[in-house]
Amino acid sequence: MSAIPSTTRTWCLYAGGLLVTLLPLAVLSGDLFWVNILIYTYLFAGLAVAWNIIGGFGGQFSLGHGVFFAVGAYMTARLYLGWEISPWLGMIPGALLCATIGPLVFWPTFRLKGSFFAIATLAFNEVGLVMANYLHTVTGGPRGLQIPFKAGLGNMIFADQCIWALIMFGFMALCVAITIVLMRSRLGYYLLAVREDEEAAHAAGIDVTRVKLRDTALSAALASIGGSLFAMYIRTIDPPTLFSLADIGVKFALIALIGGIGTIIGPVLGAFLIIPAESYLRAVMGGGLPGLHLVVMGGVMLLAALFMRRGVAGALDALWRRRSRSAS
Amino acid sequence: METLLNVLVVGILLGGIYGLVSIGLNLIFGVIRIVNFAQGELVMLGMYGAFLAYSMLGLDPYVSTLIVMPAMFLFGVIVQRVAIQPLQAESSMQIFATFGLLTVLQNVVLVFTRGEGYSVATKVASFSIAIGEIRITGTHLIILIAVTAISVLLHLFLQRTLMGKSIRAVTQDRQAARLMGINVERTFMVTFDIGSALAGLAGALIAPIYTLSPGIGDNFILAAFAVVVLGGLGSVAGAWAGGMIVGIVEAFAGYYIDPELKQAIWFLIFLLVLVIRPTGLSGQVGAEEVGFREQS
Lengths: 328, 296
Description:
The structure holds 2 protein chains of 2 kinds. Helix content of chain A is 77%, strand content 1%. By secondary structure, chain A is mostly helical. In chain A, strands 1-2 form a two-stranded antiparallel ribbon. In chain A, α13 runs antiparallel to α14. Chain A is globular, with a radius of gyration of 20 Å. Chain A starts with 6 loop residues before the first helix and ends with a helix. Chain B is mainly α. Chain B has one domain (2-295): ABC transporter involved in vitamin B12 uptake, BtuC (Orthogonal Bundle), CATH 1.10.3470. Chain B is built from 11 helices and 2 strands, in the order ααααββααααααα. Chain B has helices spanning 2-31, 39-57, 61-84, 91-113, 138-160, 162-172, 174-179, 184-206, 218-231, 236-257, 262-276; strands at 128-131, 134-137. A two-stranded antiparallel sheet of chain B has the order 1-2. The interface between A and B is large, with 45 and 47 residues.
């Protein structure tokens, strides 16, 4: 383990890194096609960072985060449509609800190891999908919810796409900041200890289950906020979109994997590679043969799993180490 | 009474389908613990294989199993070599690799078919037997017979043959199996290939009752995992029963509770069983960790 970098150094790196991720927006802010892609990039970067808190640092490979995402989306949309509660406030109950149901649902599943946990959380996602279709009064059923366009800061609806890009950027910045604070806190070190060796951590006096539950609550709440923002941005939500495995539930994990699971920068890197590549391929290939861009994306996923187990961040890290070794 | 019986028959027929599409996964996940999310796509390929044999050679889907099964066996060899073997010890990477494979297979088929739905015809479809008010079509009856017959054969294979015994030995303790002179890698490979062939067979047999679409595997994958876990990992008789449980629960929940909730009920049962007894109803307690032993 390397030494803990100083507080100032960490936050300087954080600020510098954020500035770099803002560059593409500054350059492309006139191009609506790319601004839209950037909005999704920032959003999914934040969501992958949120997933990484339990999936990467916690070592609990969740495929059920789509449920938290959907709860946030439905809650915010429903509160806004039904009672005209501003989405800025409407995000909070969803996040609190997820911070409660997340640990409640994951608690019994924590004793499952590896793939069994993943399958259980996958089933959780499918239960969510069925329930969303069934609970018409809340979710609008299969037809979904439509939010009318009524621009205004309080409504969180904007005509200018660049504002959306900045909001999503803020979400990503928040998620990364929370991860940094978490990993420098006592809970963060407990987490790493639990991930590396659960029994040893237990023997050292760490309440393993409590650590995982707190971590789940945090991760679920952030995923819910991401869902709220997503709902207000696209303004049409329905069950197949929110509970899609390929586009939501598994994608958070995929982005984190490609970037590097269990690193702070990894999920952000992953989002900046995957989302623009996918959107671009969809635009270029989608017109000709539907599905062709997904053949490419699936192939990338397969290759990443086979040859880049530690992701881009891991590959860069290995390269860096080799160079510094040959230099010294 | 008549209704109750009717729902039960519907459930049993549905259970036959669920059991059939799960047989391959029972080997691949139940026995060698490969988390194969692309299993539904192997069934889907079997369906399209039957369609190709039907449209190009005019073969009945039941005859085409003679081509589809060996073809899917070979496909299994390739998949296992390329994507599964390098990840033998890493279950979370298997999830990604097989999810990537799922995406590729679904969309390659989508590219080739351009989203058009196909169906496969067979003469058997016009036969049906009636018991009182209840009608059972020939296609469903064949599935029910097939799943039972395959289960019996697979059980005999695992219990009696040398290959079957080495498969079971490898599941229980890789290291000990290796010391006994079993070629562990080859055993894994053959098990995966047989699982793939059985998925292809299932696809060909159910092709006549579905409209073929590239995403059809999604309907089977969670059900297959549920069946395998419910029945008890690797237990052939258990998987047969697991299929029946899922089918009957779905039929009864659909009729007596709400058609929209029919699947949620067995999802929940599945979750409960996973949490309480991850080795399923007839599996050995603690067996879910067997096979993970060498990895830690």
